[in-house]
Amino acid sequence: MYPTRLFCIFTGMATLPAGLLAVLKIALLAVVGIALRQYWHPDIGFMYLVLALFLSTNLVICYWEICLFLKRDYIESRNTYWRERRQETGRSPAAEFLTSRVPLKAALSPTVWADVWATYSVSDGSFADRRTYGFNVDVANGFVTAIPTVILYAALATEFLSPVTTGIVGIMMFWQWTYATSAYWMSFFVAKRHRNIPKGEFYVLILGTNAPWVLCPLVGLYASIRLVLDDSYRVLGG
Question: Is the Cα dihedral 228, 57, 215, 129 positive or negative?
Answer without folding.
Answer: positive
